[in-house]
Design a protein that fits this description.
This protein is an alpha/beta fold.
Protein backbone atom coordinates (compact mmCIF):
# COMPACT_ATOMS: atom_id res chain seq x y z
CA UNK A 1 0.00 0.00 0.00
CA UNK A 2 2.98 2.30 -0.07
CA UNK A 3 3.48 4.83 -2.85
CA UNK A 4 6.64 5.38 -4.86
CA UNK A 5 7.78 8.99 -4.79
CA UNK A 6 10.79 11.09 -5.70
CA UNK A 7 12.09 14.33 -4.17
CA UNK A 8 11.06 17.42 -6.11
CA UNK A 9 13.34 20.43 -6.55
CA UNK A 10 11.73 22.26 -3.62
CA UNK A 11 12.42 19.37 -1.24
CA UNK A 12 8.85 18.09 -1.12
CA UNK A 13 7.93 14.71 -2.54
CA UNK A 14 6.42 14.32 -5.97
CA UNK A 15 4.08 11.32 -6.41
CA UNK A 16 4.86 9.03 -9.32
CA UNK A 17 1.72 6.85 -9.23
CA UNK A 18 -1.57 7.74 -10.91
CA UNK A 19 -4.15 9.54 -8.78
CA UNK A 20 -6.64 6.68 -9.17
CA UNK A 21 -4.09 4.18 -7.85
CA UNK A 22 -3.51 6.45 -4.86
CA UNK A 23 -7.27 6.65 -4.29
CA UNK A 24 -7.59 2.88 -4.43
CA UNK A 25 -5.22 2.52 -1.49
CA UNK A 26 -7.49 4.39 0.92
CA UNK A 27 -10.95 3.50 2.21
CA UNK A 28 -12.55 6.42 4.10
CA UNK A 29 -14.00 5.60 7.50
CA UNK A 30 -17.82 5.67 7.85
CA UNK A 31 -18.01 7.17 4.38
CA UNK A 32 -21.72 6.82 3.69
CA UNK A 33 -22.71 7.82 7.21
CA UNK A 34 -20.76 11.07 6.84
CA UNK A 35 -22.38 11.83 3.48
CA UNK A 36 -25.85 11.07 4.83
CA UNK A 37 -25.35 13.38 7.80
CA UNK A 38 -24.05 16.26 5.66
CA UNK A 39 -26.33 15.95 2.60
CA UNK A 40 -29.46 17.64 4.05
CA UNK A 41 -27.48 20.83 4.69
CA UNK A 42 -26.05 20.81 1.15
CA UNK A 43 -29.32 20.48 -0.78
CA UNK A 44 -29.47 24.07 -2.05
CA UNK A 45 -27.48 24.90 -5.22
CA UNK A 46 -24.14 26.47 -4.39
CA UNK A 47 -23.99 25.01 -0.88
CA UNK A 48 -20.42 24.71 0.42
CA UNK A 49 -18.80 21.96 2.48
CA UNK A 50 -15.39 22.52 4.03
CA UNK A 51 -13.50 19.23 4.28
CA UNK A 52 -11.01 20.31 6.93
CA UNK A 53 -8.83 17.20 6.61
CA UNK A 54 -8.88 16.47 2.89
CA UNK A 55 -6.29 13.68 2.91
CA UNK A 56 -6.73 11.45 -0.14
CA UNK A 57 -10.08 13.10 -0.95
CA UNK A 58 -12.33 10.10 -0.39
CA UNK A 59 -15.02 11.84 1.65
CA UNK A 60 -14.99 14.85 -0.67
CA UNK A 61 -15.32 12.65 -3.75
CA UNK A 62 -18.37 10.91 -2.29
CA UNK A 63 -20.06 14.22 -1.46
CA UNK A 64 -19.38 15.64 -4.93
CA UNK A 65 -20.74 12.45 -6.55
CA UNK A 66 -23.85 12.09 -4.40
CA UNK A 67 -24.77 15.73 -3.76
CA UNK A 68 -24.65 17.53 -7.14
CA UNK A 69 -25.70 20.85 -5.56
CA UNK A 70 -22.58 20.98 -3.36
CA UNK A 71 -19.18 22.58 -3.72
CA UNK A 72 -16.27 21.46 -1.53
CA UNK A 73 -13.34 23.42 -0.15
CA UNK A 74 -10.63 20.92 0.80
CA UNK A 75 -8.10 21.96 3.45
CA UNK A 76 -4.91 20.04 4.20
CA UNK A 77 -1.57 20.96 5.73
CA UNK A 78 0.19 18.24 3.71
CA UNK A 79 1.19 19.56 0.24
CA UNK A 80 1.52 16.03 -1.14
CA UNK A 81 -2.01 15.11 -0.05
CA UNK A 82 -3.33 18.26 -1.73
CA UNK A 83 -1.63 17.34 -5.00
CA UNK A 84 -2.92 13.78 -5.00
CA UNK A 85 -6.46 14.75 -3.99
CA UNK A 86 -6.56 17.56 -6.57
CA UNK A 87 -5.65 15.09 -9.33
CA UNK A 88 -8.30 12.68 -8.10
CA UNK A 89 -10.97 15.39 -7.97
CA UNK A 90 -10.03 17.29 -11.15
CA UNK A 91 -13.08 15.88 -12.97
CA UNK A 92 -15.35 18.00 -10.75
CA UNK A 93 -13.87 21.25 -12.07
CA UNK A 94 -14.61 24.35 -10.03
CA UNK A 95 -16.87 22.44 -7.65
CA UNK A 96 -13.66 21.57 -5.75
CA UNK A 97 -11.20 24.10 -4.33
CA UNK A 98 -7.98 22.91 -2.60
CA UNK A 99 -6.39 25.08 0.11
CA UNK A 100 -3.02 24.56 1.80
CA UNK A 101 -3.68 25.45 5.44
CA UNK A 102 -4.06 24.03 8.92
CA UNK A 103 -7.72 23.47 9.65
CA UNK A 104 -7.90 25.80 12.64
CA UNK A 105 -7.56 28.53 9.99
CA UNK A 106 -11.01 27.67 8.65
CA UNK A 107 -12.37 31.14 9.43
CA UNK A 108 -9.64 32.81 7.40
CA UNK A 109 -10.06 30.27 4.57
CA UNK A 110 -13.81 30.86 4.34
CA UNK A 111 -13.41 34.64 4.44
CA UNK A 112 -10.60 34.49 1.89
CA UNK A 113 -12.94 32.78 -0.56
CA UNK A 114 -15.48 35.59 -0.15
CA UNK A 115 -17.96 33.48 1.82
CA UNK A 116 -19.93 34.68 4.82
CA UNK A 117 -20.63 31.13 6.03
CA UNK A 118 -20.72 27.52 4.84
CA UNK A 119 -23.35 24.82 5.02
CA UNK A 120 -21.17 21.90 6.10
CA UNK A 121 -17.91 21.08 7.87
CA UNK A 122 -16.23 17.68 7.99
CA UNK A 123 -13.22 16.71 10.11
CA UNK A 124 -11.61 13.27 9.85
CA UNK A 125 -8.92 13.58 12.50
CA UNK A 126 -5.59 11.91 13.15
CA UNK A 127 -2.91 10.69 10.79
CA UNK A 128 -3.90 9.87 7.20
CA UNK A 129 -3.36 6.63 5.31
CA UNK A 130 -0.98 8.47 2.99
CA UNK A 131 1.22 9.47 5.91
CA UNK A 132 1.08 6.06 7.58
CA UNK A 133 1.80 4.12 4.42
CA UNK A 134 4.76 6.22 3.28
CA UNK A 135 7.68 4.78 5.21
CA UNK A 136 9.95 7.81 4.95
CA UNK A 137 7.45 10.08 6.70
CA UNK A 138 8.36 8.44 10.02
CA UNK A 139 4.83 7.91 11.37
CA UNK A 140 4.91 4.10 11.52
CA UNK A 141 6.81 2.24 14.23
CA UNK A 142 6.85 -0.91 12.09
CA UNK A 143 9.11 0.64 9.44
CA UNK A 144 12.57 2.14 9.89
CA UNK A 145 12.68 5.73 8.65
CA UNK A 146 13.91 9.22 9.56
CA UNK A 147 12.22 10.62 12.68
CA UNK A 148 10.13 13.26 10.95
CA UNK A 149 6.36 12.89 11.65
CA UNK A 150 5.46 16.34 10.30
CA UNK A 151 2.17 16.42 8.40
CA UNK A 152 3.53 19.48 6.60
CA UNK A 153 7.17 18.77 5.82
CA UNK A 154 7.80 22.38 4.78
CA UNK A 155 7.86 23.75 8.33
CA UNK A 156 8.11 23.04 12.05
CA UNK A 157 10.03 20.75 14.39
CA UNK A 158 10.57 17.09 13.52
CA UNK A 159 10.20 14.20 15.96
CA UNK A 160 14.01 14.01 16.05
CA UNK A 161 14.12 17.67 17.13
CA UNK A 162 11.71 16.93 19.97
CA UNK A 163 13.64 13.88 21.15
CA UNK A 164 16.99 15.65 20.97
CA UNK A 165 16.04 18.96 22.62
CA UNK A 166 13.17 18.45 25.10
CA UNK A 167 14.25 17.80 28.68
CA UNK A 168 13.20 14.70 30.60
CA UNK A 169 10.35 16.46 32.38
CA UNK A 170 8.82 17.73 29.13
CA UNK A 171 9.21 14.36 27.41
CA UNK A 172 7.51 12.70 30.36
CA UNK A 173 4.62 15.14 30.10
CA UNK A 174 3.91 14.56 26.41
CA UNK A 175 4.25 10.77 26.74
CA UNK A 176 1.84 10.75 29.66
CA UNK A 177 -0.69 13.26 28.28
CA UNK A 178 -0.62 12.51 24.55
CA UNK A 179 0.37 8.84 24.57
CA UNK A 180 -1.35 7.87 27.82
CA UNK A 181 1.84 5.94 28.56
CA UNK A 182 1.90 4.35 32.03
CA UNK A 183 5.69 4.27 32.04
CA UNK A 184 6.19 7.79 30.70
CA UNK A 185 8.94 8.80 33.11
CA UNK A 186 10.81 5.55 32.63
CA UNK A 187 10.70 5.89 28.84
CA UNK A 188 11.65 9.59 28.95
CA UNK A 189 14.66 8.86 31.13
CA UNK A 190 15.82 6.18 28.68
CA UNK A 191 15.32 8.56 25.74
CA UNK A 192 17.50 11.26 27.33
CA UNK A 193 20.18 8.77 28.40
CA UNK A 194 20.38 7.37 24.85
CA UNK A 195 20.75 10.78 23.17
CA UNK A 196 23.78 11.57 25.33
CA UNK A 197 25.56 8.84 23.39
CA UNK A 198 24.09 9.52 19.94
CA UNK A 199 21.41 11.93 18.64
CA UNK A 200 18.05 10.46 17.72
CA UNK A 201 17.62 9.96 13.95
CA UNK A 202 15.66 6.79 13.09
CA UNK A 203 12.26 5.32 13.98
CA UNK A 204 13.67 1.81 14.25
CA UNK A 205 16.06 2.88 16.98
CA UNK A 206 13.23 4.57 18.86
CA UNK A 207 10.95 1.53 18.65
CA UNK A 208 13.72 -0.72 19.95
CA UNK A 209 14.49 1.53 22.90
CA UNK A 210 10.85 1.95 23.92
CA UNK A 211 10.36 -1.80 23.77
CA UNK A 212 13.34 -2.35 26.06
CA UNK A 213 12.23 0.40 28.47
CA UNK A 214 8.76 -1.10 29.00
CA UNK A 215 8.62 -3.91 31.62
CA UNK A 216 8.56 -7.32 29.94
CA UNK A 217 5.39 -8.42 31.73
CA UNK A 218 3.37 -5.56 30.21
CA UNK A 219 4.69 -6.15 26.68
CA UNK A 220 2.73 -9.38 26.35
CA UNK A 221 -0.60 -7.64 25.68
CA UNK A 222 -1.83 -4.47 24.03
CA UNK A 223 0.11 -4.63 20.78
CA UNK A 224 3.41 -2.92 20.02
CA UNK A 225 4.52 -0.96 23.11
CA UNK A 226 5.98 1.77 20.85
CA UNK A 227 2.58 2.88 19.53
CA UNK A 228 1.89 5.15 22.52
CA UNK A 229 5.24 6.93 22.21
CA UNK A 230 4.81 7.36 18.44
CA UNK A 231 1.31 8.75 18.97
CA UNK A 232 2.56 11.21 21.59
CA UNK A 233 5.40 12.45 19.40
CA UNK A 234 3.12 12.85 16.37
CA UNK A 235 0.62 14.87 18.38
CA UNK A 236 3.37 17.09 19.80
CA UNK A 237 5.15 17.64 16.45
CA UNK A 238 1.92 18.69 14.72
CA UNK A 239 0.29 20.46 17.67
CA UNK A 240 -2.77 18.31 16.99
CA UNK A 241 -4.72 18.85 20.20
CA UNK A 242 -4.01 22.58 20.38
CA UNK A 243 -5.13 22.92 16.76
CA UNK A 244 -8.28 20.90 17.45
CA UNK A 245 -9.13 23.01 20.52
CA UNK A 246 -9.23 26.06 18.24
CA UNK A 247 -10.61 24.37 15.14
CA UNK A 248 -13.91 22.98 16.41
CA UNK A 249 -15.25 26.29 17.79
CA UNK A 250 -13.95 28.09 14.68
CA UNK A 251 -15.70 25.55 12.44
CA UNK A 252 -18.98 25.98 14.31
CA UNK A 253 -18.67 29.75 13.91
CA UNK A 254 -18.18 29.26 10.15
CA UNK A 255 -21.50 27.38 9.87
CA UNK A 256 -24.62 29.08 8.54
CA UNK A 257 -27.91 28.49 10.35
CA UNK A 258 -29.03 25.03 9.24
CA UNK A 259 -25.44 24.00 8.57
CA UNK A 260 -23.97 20.77 9.91
CA UNK A 261 -20.63 19.69 11.39
CA UNK A 262 -19.42 16.07 11.38
CA UNK A 263 -16.24 15.04 13.23
CA UNK A 264 -14.52 11.65 13.30
CA UNK A 265 -12.04 11.16 16.17
CA UNK A 266 -9.71 8.23 16.74
CA UNK A 267 -8.64 8.46 20.37
CA UNK A 268 -10.13 9.69 23.61
CA UNK A 269 -8.10 12.92 23.73
CA UNK A 270 -9.57 14.08 20.41
CA UNK A 271 -13.09 12.91 21.19
CA UNK A 272 -13.09 14.71 24.54
CA UNK A 273 -12.35 18.04 22.85
CA UNK A 274 -15.05 17.52 20.21
CA UNK A 275 -17.60 16.37 22.78
CA UNK A 276 -16.97 19.45 24.94
CA UNK A 277 -17.31 21.91 22.03
CA UNK A 278 -20.57 20.37 20.80
CA UNK A 279 -22.00 20.04 24.32
CA UNK A 280 -21.35 23.73 24.86
CA UNK A 281 -23.68 24.56 21.98
CA UNK A 282 -26.36 21.97 22.71
CA UNK A 283 -26.90 23.01 26.34
CA UNK A 284 -28.63 26.07 27.73
CA UNK A 285 -26.25 28.75 29.00
CA UNK A 286 -28.87 30.25 31.33
CA UNK A 287 -28.01 30.41 35.04
CA UNK A 288 -29.67 27.69 37.06
CA UNK A 289 -32.93 28.61 38.73
CA UNK A 290 -34.27 31.14 36.22
CA UNK A 291 -38.07 30.77 35.91
CA UNK A 292 -37.92 31.47 32.15
CA UNK A 293 -35.02 30.68 29.85
CA UNK A 294 -33.98 33.81 27.90
CA UNK A 295 -33.92 33.43 24.12
CA UNK A 296 -30.24 34.41 24.07
CA UNK A 297 -29.35 31.48 26.33
CA UNK A 298 -31.08 28.73 24.39
CA UNK A 299 -28.94 26.08 22.66
CA UNK A 300 -27.52 27.09 19.30
CA UNK A 301 -26.66 23.52 18.22
CA UNK A 302 -28.75 20.39 17.89
CA UNK A 303 -27.00 17.01 18.27
CA UNK A 304 -27.44 14.69 15.28
CA UNK A 305 -25.90 11.65 16.95
CA UNK A 306 -26.66 10.09 20.30
CA UNK A 307 -23.27 10.41 21.93
CA UNK A 308 -20.41 9.14 19.78
CA UNK A 309 -21.20 6.61 17.06
CA UNK A 310 -18.82 3.71 16.46
CA UNK A 311 -18.21 1.47 13.46
CA UNK A 312 -20.43 -1.59 13.17
CA UNK A 313 -19.23 -5.09 12.30
CA UNK A 314 -19.77 -4.60 8.56
CA UNK A 315 -17.66 -1.41 8.59
CA UNK A 316 -14.90 -3.08 10.59
CA UNK A 317 -14.81 -5.98 8.16
CA UNK A 318 -14.43 -3.57 5.23
CA UNK A 319 -12.02 -1.23 6.98
CA UNK A 320 -10.04 -2.33 10.07
CA UNK A 321 -8.78 1.24 10.55
CA UNK A 322 -12.31 2.13 11.68
CA UNK A 323 -11.86 0.20 14.93
CA UNK A 324 -11.26 3.26 17.10
CA UNK A 325 -13.45 5.84 15.33
CA UNK A 326 -15.90 7.98 17.31
CA UNK A 327 -18.25 10.09 15.18
CA UNK A 328 -20.16 13.13 16.49
CA UNK A 329 -22.36 15.51 14.53
CA UNK A 330 -24.47 18.59 15.16
CA UNK A 331 -26.60 21.13 13.27
CA UNK A 332 -26.67 24.91 13.84
CA UNK A 333 -30.05 26.11 15.10
CA UNK A 334 -29.28 29.84 15.44
CA UNK A 335 -26.30 32.18 15.60
CA UNK A 336 -24.04 31.78 18.61
CA UNK A 337 -25.20 34.13 21.40
CA UNK A 338 -22.93 37.14 21.77
CA UNK A 339 -21.92 36.26 25.34
CA UNK A 340 -20.59 32.89 24.09
CA UNK A 341 -18.68 34.24 21.09
CA UNK A 342 -15.73 35.34 23.26
CA UNK A 343 -14.29 31.82 23.11
CA UNK A 344 -14.04 31.85 19.31
CA UNK A 345 -12.40 35.30 19.33
CA UNK A 346 -9.87 34.19 21.93
CA UNK A 347 -9.15 31.04 19.90
CA UNK A 348 -8.45 33.11 16.80
CA UNK A 349 -5.98 35.29 18.70
CA UNK A 350 -4.33 32.17 20.15
CA UNK A 351 -3.97 30.74 16.65
CA UNK A 352 -2.08 33.78 15.44
CA UNK A 353 0.15 33.81 18.53
CA UNK A 354 0.96 30.12 18.22
CA UNK A 355 1.73 30.47 14.52
CA UNK A 356 4.23 33.26 15.15
CA UNK A 357 5.93 31.23 17.87
CA UNK A 358 6.26 28.24 15.53
CA UNK A 359 7.75 30.39 12.80
CA UNK A 360 10.36 31.77 15.20
CA UNK A 361 11.33 28.27 16.20
Amino acid sequence: MTEDARPDEDGTREPTVPARAAADRHLPVLLQRCVDLLAPALAEPGSVLVDCTLGMGGHTEAVLEQVPTARVVGIDRDPQALRLASERLARFGDRFTPVHAVYDEIGDVVAGLGLDAVQGVLMDLGVSSLQLDEADRGFAYAQDAPLDMRMDQTRGLTAADVLNTYDERELTRILREYGEERFAQRVARALVRRREEKPWERTGELADLVRSAIPAATRKTGGNPSKRTFQALRIEVNGELEVLERAVPAAIEALAVGGRIVVESYHSLEDRIVKRAIARGTASSAPAGLPVEPETHRPYLEPLTRGAEEADEAELERNPRAASVRLRAAARLRPTPEHLRTHATTSSRATRTTRSKEERR
